[in-house]
């Protein structure tokens, strides 16, 4: 780290990588930005937008000029690229998912600890003020006893070249739901199908069970849907909350709705079910770009040594769920997770 600030590199300049370049270029504690990509046609337009940045076509060439690296390449490359940076003594932020296997995630965690560098998972929605507001609502008990959570992340595309829709889209929902529940699930079941893609599932459904809470969470992800959906619904015994990330205003709405059943089931004069319809309220949610909050938090962790919110173990918790979902896609069975060294891992068969 130089006296003027941190030297940060971004490897991979696709959809998310280009956003990271824009964000870190504007952070106060970042002295310089390096852009790394094998494709020069991607580097040129970014250099025009950020002329002070340096461009490299390989990580090896860039590493001597970096203090920290953001990995925004296809998921299958996350572990080897992150390990190369860690072994060179660089701090690393890895876009979701942290790895494509739990073994790979553990390797990153162990080697980062040995090297004394920060390892952070890019769970952007855990830096979203609406998600944190929803978490406060859940924890306050305003919704009552939780019944279930339903999440949808749908769109037409973008198809990925190295992972299916579960690994591409579900990391967001898994990290959000784990944050809301304050823990990891106890089992995972998944269903999926391939339509327009020969190799990878483009539509999938996941069910996460939080057995100790008596709560289940359902996740629907799709690359093959006519409507763009980014929604999380939390249903409780008293109220229901809906978080719509696509809403320009009122991203969270609390519905004072519910159902009740007669206490005396033998009293046939009472209706079998009654429904309650009350007000819809929209709590205040502070503005802010989650990616900017996330990247600034990464820089702060590197500069000050403060622990980061989404560390390697947080990334591992999501990867374990995704790997269990992948196993379930193949077997059609629910896959249990078990406790291991303070975190959940795949249960042995």
Descriptive notes:
With 349 residues, the protein is an alpha/beta fold. The chain has two domains: 6-123 and 290-310, NAD(P)-binding Rossmann-like Domain (Rossmann fold); 126-288 and 320-343, Dihydrodipicolinate Reductase, domain 2, CATH 3.30.360. Helices cover 32% and strands 31% of the residues. The chain contains nine helices and 16 strands. The longest helix is centred in the last third of the chain and has 20 residues, at 312-331. The protein starts with 5 loop residues before the first strand and ends with a strand.
Topology:
Blueprint: E1 6-11, H1 15-25, E2 30-36, H2 40-49, E3 54-56, H3 59-62, E4 68-71, H4 78-87, E5 91-95, H5 102-115, E6 119-122, H6 129-140, E7 146-156, H7 165-181, E8 187-193, E9 203-210, E10 215-222, E11 224-236, E12 240-244, E13 252-260, E14 274-281, H8 290-304, H9 312-331, E15 335-340, E16 343-346
Parallel strand pairs: 1-2, 1-4, 2-3, 4-5, 5-6, 7-10
Antiparallel strand pairs: 7-11, 8-9, 8-15, 9-10, 11-12, 12-13, 13-14, 15-16
Helix pairs in contact: 1-8, 4-5, 5-9, 6-7, 7-9
Tell me the distance between the termini. 47 Å
CATH topology of the largest domain: Dihydrodipicolinate Reductase, domain 2
Number of domains: 2
User: Based on helices, strands and strand pairing, what is the structural class?
Assistant: alpha/beta
Mean pLDDT: 93
Q: What global shape is seen?
A: globular
**Helix amount, in percent?**
25-40%
Give the CATH H-level superfamily of the largest domain: Dihydrodipicolinate Reductase, domain 2
Residue runs with pLDDT of under 50 for 5 or more positions: none
Sequence of secondary-structure elements: EHEHEHEHEHEHEHEEEEEEEHHEE
